[in-house]
Specification:
The protein is α/β, with parallel strands linked by helices and 219 residues long. It has ten helices and eight strands. The C terminus is likely disordered.
C-alpha cells in the first residue's frame, strides 16, 4: 500500500493517564480537520501506552488520518501504526527502517539544522520536522528555528516539512507561506476550551490544498 504524504494539521498528543479524555480530544481534533496524529507519552508504563495507542489507531482509521508513534518502533509495530517519529536521542533512522520495512512512515526531528534534514532525506526518511519556531510551553528550552531556515529547506528538500513549536492559528499562516507542509501542534490544540474549533482554525490554513474540507459540521 502506498504511503501517505504528511500534510495539514499534525496533532501531537499531550501526556495524560486518562485514556478516555485523550480519545475524546483527539477525535475532536480529527473532526476539526487534523490529518496526522502523533502519539507522544514518555512517562506512562508500557501497558498504558499500548492501550492508548491502540485506541488512537482505531480513531485515526475511522477518520482516515495517519497515526505516528513518537520514538517507539516496537509500539508502532505492535499496534499497527502508520509510522514513527524519531528525535536526536532516539533510534537511528536506518535501524528503524530495517525494523519497520518500507511501508511505514519515518519522520525525523531536525531542530534548526538543514544538514540533519538533508541526511534524513538521503537515508530514506519520509518527512522532517524543524522547530521550535516560537516560544513553547512544552519545551521552553528548545532551540529556535527561523522562517529563513524553513524557506531554504523548502528550496532544497523534496520531503514534506513539518513545523513545530508554539504554533497558533495566528502565527501558523507565516509558516505555511514559508514552506511548511504541516503544522505540529500540542498546546494550541489540546490546552484550549474547544479542541474541535481550534483544529478547524488550523485546518483553514491548508484549505486551498485540501479542498473539499468539510469542517463546518456540528456533528
Amino acid at each position: 500500500m502506498k504511503k501517505r504524504r504528511i500534510s495539514g494539521l499534525y496533532a501531537v498528543t499531550p501526556e495524560t493517564p486518562d485514556g478516555d479524555w485523550l480519545a475524546v480530544q483527539v477525535e475532536r481534533a480529527l473532526i476539526g480537520g487534523a490529518r496526522v496524529v502523533q502519539y507522544r507519552n514518555k512517562s506512562a508504563d508500557r501497558d498504558l501506552r499500548r492501550r492508548q495507542a491502540a485506541r488512537l489507531r482505531d480513531l485515526c482509521r475511522e477518520h482516515e488520518a495517519v497515526l505516528i508513534i513518537n520514538d517507539d518502533v516496537g509500539l508502532a509495530l505492535e499496534v499497527g501504526a502508520d509510522g514513527v517519529h524519531l528525535g536526536r536521542d532516539d533510534q537511528r533512522l536506518v535501524e528503524a527502517r530495517a525494523a519497520l520495512g518500507t511501508g511505514k512512515l519515518i519522520g525525523v526531528s531536525c531542530y534548526d539544522s538543514l544538514a540533519l534534514a538533508s541526511e534524513a532525506q538521503k537515508s530514506g526518511g519520509d518527512y522532517v520536522a524543524f522547530g521550535s519556531f516560537f516560544p513553547s510551553s512544552v519545551k521552553p528550552q528548545a532551540v529556535r528555528a527561523s522562517l529563513d531556515l524553513l524557506r531554504e529547506a523548502r528550496s532544497q528538500l523534496t520531503l514534506p516539512i513539518v513545523a513545530i513549536g508554539g504554533i497558533t492559528p495566528d502565527n501558523g499562516a507565516a509558516l505555511v507561506e514559508a514552506g511548511a507542509d504541516a503544522l505540529a501542534v500540542i498546546s494550541a490544540l489540546f490546552q484550549v476550551a474547544d479542541t474541535r474549533s481550534a483544529a478547524r482554525a488550523f485546518a483553514r490554513l491548508f484549505a486551498p490544498l485540501h479542498e473539499p474540507l468539510s469542517i463546518d459540521s456540528d456533528q
